[in-house]
C-alpha cells in the first residue's frame, strides 16, 4: 500500500520477522458473547477443542489443557456421549437428502417416524415439534388455554404450578417458574400472575422406592385440593416437573403428590401438564419420571436428551381428548408455528437417539450409574459444609449449606479430570448414560474433592 507521497512504506527487518499477536479464543469471547446467566465481563469460560465419548478436551485462559469426564452431559442432553457413530451417521445421511424444509403444508419421513416413536413411548397421541424446551412449554400452556376456550370456559386461563419449579426462560414459561426463588424476578410487570403451591414433601430413594413422610404428603394434598376448589373457574391446567425439580434445586419429591395432581385435575376439568424436559428418557430411573406415580398426563413436554445433545429440538405431546377439543373449536388449529419446526436433521438424529436408548439397555446403564454415584458421593457426607447427598437414577447431588464458589469448585474438579457446572448451593452431576464405572468413580472423586478443597 502506498503512503501519501506515492512511495511504499519501509518495513524494518524486526517488524517483518515479528508475528502478529493473536488473541486466544477465550480472549476473543470475553466482552463479545453472553453466556447463560453470566455478565459479559464475568469469569473466563473454558475453551472446548474436541469431544469424544464421555470426554471433553478443554483449555483455560492461561493455556492449561485438560482432558475431563463430562459430568453434566452438556446440561443433561448428551446421554449417548459425543461423536456417537450412530448419531453421526443419522445426521450425515439426512444432510445428504435435505437439511431443512418448512413444515407448513409439507411433511417428511424423519418427523413422522420420530412422532410415531414418541407417541409409542409416552402413551400420548399427538405431537407438536418446537425449537427448544422453553418453547414447548409455551405451546403446552397455549394448548391448555385453547382447550378450556373450546369447552366454553374462556375464564379458565391461569395455571397452578409448584414453588421451586423451573420451566424455561420465555415469558409464559417464566410465569410458571418459582416467582420468588426463581431466576426471573426482574420481570414482574411482564409476567402473568399464576397460582403456586408449596413444594411437595421431599422423598428419598430407599431400596428402589421413593419414600416421603406420610403426614406431610397428606397435608400437601389437602392444600392442593383446597386451592383448586377455590380457583377452579380460573384455572386451565396444573403444570409440574414430575418427581424431580431440576434447575429449581435438584429436588426430589413424593410421587403421591403427582398422582394427587392427576386426580384433582380430572375432578375439576383441568389438564395436567408434565415438564419432562430434564427428567425424560430414563434420567431418573424410569423412562419418564411420571411413571414413578403411574401417571399419564394430558400434556407432556420433552427436550434436552431428545436428540442426544446433537441439535436443539423439543416436543409437546398431548392426549386425543385434549387435541379433539382444539380441533372441534372455531380456531381448529393450535396457534403456534416455528420456522424450524420439525427440522429434518434434528428429527433424524432424535429418532436415532431413541433407537439407541431402547436397544442399548438404558435401564442397566442408569442403574449402574445410580449404584456408582451412591458409593462415589458418599464420602462428601463427612464434610461440615454438606447439608445432604442424594442420588436418583443418573442424578447425583451434593447440597451445601451455603452457595457454591462456582469458579473455585469448577477448577478443583477439573484438576481431578472432571467437568462440572455447579449452581446455587449444589454441586451435582447428570453424566452420560454411556459412562463407565471408572467414569462414575472419577466424577464422584472430583465432586468430593471440590467440596473438600473449596468448602470443607
UniProtKB/TrEMBL annotation:
One of its GO terms (cellular component) is cytoplasm. One of its GO terms (molecular function) is pyridoxal phosphate binding. The modification N6-(pyridoxal phosphate)lysine is found at residue 304. Substrate binds at residues 75, 166, 304, 337, 421. PROSITE patterns: AA_TRANSFER_CLASS_3. It comes from Arthrobacter glacialis. Catalyzes the transfer of the alpha-amino group from S-adenosyl-L-methionine (SAM) to 7-keto-8-aminopelargonic acid (KAPA) to form 7,8-diaminopelargonic acid (DAPA). It is the only aminotransferase known to utilize SAM as an amino donor. Pathway: Cofactor biosynthesis; biotin biosynthesis; 7,8-diaminononanoate from 8-amino-7-oxononanoate (SAM route): step 1/1. HAMAP family: BioA (MF_00834). Its cofactor is pyridoxal 5'-phosphate. Homodimer. Pfam families: Aminotran_3 (PF00202). This is Adenosylmethionine-8-amino-7-oxononanoate aminotransferase. One of its GO terms (biological process) is biotin biosynthetic process. The record marks 37 as: Participates in the substrate recognition with KAPA and in a stacking interaction with the adenine ring of SAM. Pyridoxal 5'-phosphate binds at residues 133-134, 275, 338-339. InterPro entries: Aminotrans_3 (IPR005814), Aminotrans_3_PPA_site (IPR049704), BioA (IPR005815), PyrdxlP-dep_Trfase (IPR015424), PyrdxlP-dep_Trfase_major (IPR015421), PyrdxlP-dep_Trfase_small (IPR015422). It catalyses: (8S)-8-amino-7-oxononanoate + S-adenosyl-L-methionine = S-adenosyl-4-methylsulfanyl-2-oxobutanoate + (7R,8S)-7,8-diammoniononanoate. The keyword Cytoplasm applies. Belongs to the class-III pyridoxal-phosphate-dependent aminotransferase family. BioA subfamily.
